[in-house]
Amino acid sequence: LISSATKSLRMETEILEKKLQDAQMKLAEKDGDKDKEIQSLKRLISELEFQLTMEKSNNESFLDKLRKEMKHKSDELEKLTQEKTQLIHSLSRVQEENSLLQDTVRRECEERFELTAALGRAREQVLELRRLSGTLP
């Protein structure tokens, strides 16, 4: 009975040892698979970090370009604003000059009209005097 029980326990022990070995092999395979997966994930993380670094660099470069362009446009706008102010000032000055010249022309036309009228009267007087002097001895 003891011999049979011992034999039975040995067989059970052998079966359990075989199961243990199988389980250890499966565990070793899973560990290997996990190591491979970890390495794969590390490579993927490295690639993604590199892509992120490149994207950051590209974004910073793009932002620098936009900042420079914005500064250039701002400078250009300021220059155009100054030119506009100068043009408005020049226009105002020219309008004043034009108004003054129009006033001068109007006054000169009035004077010319008055002088023409006076000359006409003087001619009439001269003609009248000639006519009178022609009748006088």
How many domains is the backbone divided into?
1
Shape, per Cα inertia axes: rod-shaped
Q: Mean pLDDT, nearest integer?
A: 95
Content of β-strand = under 5%
Ends: how far apart? 195 Å
* Oligomeric state of the chains present here: single chain
List the secondary-structure elements in sequence, H or E. Answer: H
Helix content: over 70%
Structural class by sheet pairing and helices: mainly alpha
Q: What is the number of helical segments per DSSP (H or I, 4+ residues)?
A: 1
Keywords: Coiled coil
Protein name: LEKR1 protein
Organism: Sinosuthora webbiana
InterPro entries: LEKR1
Task: Name the descriptors.
single chain, 137 residues, mainly alpha, 98% helix, 0% strand, rod-shaped
Task: Provide an overview of this structure.
This protein has one domain (about 1-100). The termini are far apart. The protein has one helix at about 1-135. The protein is built from one helix and no strands. The chain has about 140 residues and is mainly α. The longest helix has about 130 residues, at about 1-135. It is about 100% helix and about 0% strand. InterPro entries: LEKR1 (IPR038799). It comes from Sinosuthora webbiana.
What is the topology?
Blueprint: H1 2-135
Coiled coil: 63-97
InterPro entries: LEKR1 (IPR038799)
Protein name: LEKR1 protein
Summary?
It is built from 1 helix and no strands.
